[in-house]
Amino acid sequence: MSTLTVSRHFVEASLSGARRMGLDTRDLLQEAGISPDLLRIEMARVSSDQFSKLMQIIWQRTDDEFMGMGPRRARYGTFATMCALVIGCQTLEEVYQQAFRFSRLFDPMVTMELDTRNERVRLVARIEGTIHDPDYFLRESLLVIWHRLGSWLIGQPVELENAEFDYPRPDHGDEYRHIFHCPLVFESDCIALTFSKRFLSAPVIRDKPEMRQFLKTSPADLLSRPDESNTWTGRIRGLIGRDFSKPMPDFDWIAQELHTSPQTLRRRLKQENTSFQEIKDLLRRDMAIYYLSHPEIAINDIAERVGFTEPSTFHRAFKKWTGVTPGAWRDGERGDLA
C-alpha cells in the first residue's frame, strides 16, 4: 500500500495532450478511479496508485508514450523496448549511452544525452521539433524517468547536485523540491540534471526477470512513486512510520537512529529542500487523504489516526494543507461537491 499523493496539477497536466486529441478526459479520470469533482478543489491530491493507473490509461488510449505532447508519437511499448536493450549493459554509463543511441533512431529526437566532459556529469535533454507541453509535463517526465530508471538499475539513488530548466519557475515549482531533492535552477540555457562522475561506473544489478516485473507498472510508477528509500527524507518517513496514535519520535532520536548528528541531518534535509517539520506534516496529510478515501472510517477517527487529539485541530490542519475541510474533500471524492 502506497500512501504517497500527487498534486492535482500533475493530474491536469498529464491530460493536456489527450484533451488536445479529443479524448474524453472525464472518462479517463473515472477509469483511473479519480473523481473529476475532486479536481475542482484547487489543492487537491490523488493517490500515487490512481496517478500511476491514469498514466497507463493515457498511454494505452493515445497509443503514445508522449501522451500527445511530443513532436511525434512514441507508440506504446517504446519505453519497454529501450529497457530490453539497456538491461544488458554493465554500468550506468553504458545504460545512458545505449538509451541515447536507441532514442536518436527516431526523428525528431526526444531524449537525454550524457555529457561527461567535466568532473560533474550532466544528462541534458535533447528535444527536436515542436512540442505541445504548456504545463511542462513532458519535459518533467523525461528528466524523472531517465533519472529514476538509472537509479533503479544500479540499486541506489543517483544523487543530484542540481536540476536545470530552460523556463521560468512555474506556479507548481514548489512541487519540484519533492521530485528532484536538489537545488533548482530556472531560466537556464538547457534542461539538465547534474551528478557526480562516480555514479557512471556503478554496476547494473538488475536482471531480465526483474526488468519484466518492473515493466508491468513502469514508467508510470517511476513518475508517481519515487524510490525514496535511500534519501534522508525517505529514511525519516520510514522511521516515523504510519501509526500516529503513538507519540511522534523527536528529531534527536531520528538522528541517532540514522547514525548522524542533528546538525548534519538538518543540513542534509536542507540539501533535499525539506525539513523535519515538513516531512511530518506531509506524512500526516497523505495518511489523512488515504483514510478519507475509505468512507467507512469516520472523520473524527481519522483525526485520531493521524495524531490529532482534537478533531477541530485536525480540521484546521487539513484545511491548511488542502484548502478545504475533510468533509468537503470526502464529498469531492464521492462526486457530491456542491
UniProtKB/TrEMBL annotation:
- Family annotation (Gene3D superfamilies): Homeodomain-like
Which keywords label this protein? Answer: DNA-binding, Transcription, Transcription regulation
Q: Which InterPro entries match?
A: AraC-type_N, Homeodomain-like_sf, HTH_AraC, Tscrpt_reg_AraC-type_HTH
Is Transcription set as a keyword in this record? yes
Quote the SUPFAM superfamilies the UniProt record gives.
Homeodomain-like (SSF46689)
* HTH araC/xylS-type domain mapped to chain residues: 234-332
The molecule here is called: AraC family transcriptional regulator
Q: Which organism's genome codes for this protein? A: Marinobacter daepoensis
